[in-house]
Design goal:
Layout: H1 4-8, H2 11-16, H3 18-36, H4 40-48, H5 51-62, H6 80-92, H7 96-108, H8 112-125, H9 130-142, H10 146-159, H11 167-178, H12 182-195, H13 199-211, H14 215-230, H15 234-254
Helix pairs in contact: 3-4, 3-5, 6-7, 7-8, 7-9, 8-9, 9-10, 9-11, 10-11, 11-12, 12-13, 13-14, 13-15, 14-15
Length: about 260
Amino acid sequence: MSSLFNDLSRWQYLLTNPVALAIFAFQIWMFVHAVRAREWIWAVFIFIGWIITAVLYFFLVYRATPSSTRGFELPGAYNRKRIRELQAHIHHLDKAHHHSQLGDIYFQQGKLDLAAGEYRAALERDATDLDTRAHLGQCLLRQKHPAEARPLLEGVIAENPKHEYGYTQMALAETLTALGETTAALKVWQQVTMAHSYPRAKVQLAELYLAQNQPELARPQLQDVVTDDIHTLPFQRKRDRPWVRRAKSLLGQIK
């Protein structure tokens, strides 16, 4: 099975060989994903290459593709062992910070309903914790409840404008955008980009400029994202990949 093209001319062989059919289906899956992700070089080599190319793409690109919350990550790692540890602590001690930490893990995994439940449980035990309030606000935003997220995020920023290095401000800007308050969102994004160089902030600020027909203001923000990506550490490049792609796409539209 040297290429997708060759396989397409061998339907009888594919239909009578389950292993070959499974390999062919896997190649098609990876090829379609590469095209949708605009990974053109990978797509070409998957199309003309051996199955090993599709396997490499699966591990190097597909599994590294950010989930719905990966561009919006919270600090901290997660794994099954840590979940079990926190569940045990909650069972025996029932402390607010244990619920909050478990909520962070669920958030990172994209399990937003579980995350929100843990954050609410944490606030029932300690309603003053800034991190929990901010993270619940981010979680509600991802659940498409911006009206509920807004007072939580605004309250945290009122107490600490620099909370979590601007991440809470970014969540507030996204919340305001979701609520249709683009002027207020624009001001928050400008504050974030003055203090930080996050691609997430620059791209969304540029999108608001473009929505206001101001490409001359959007272009430098997008160019900064593309230029900075070359000098970014590998783990940051993986995290920021969706924003860099959006920046390149938007630049192509306004040139």
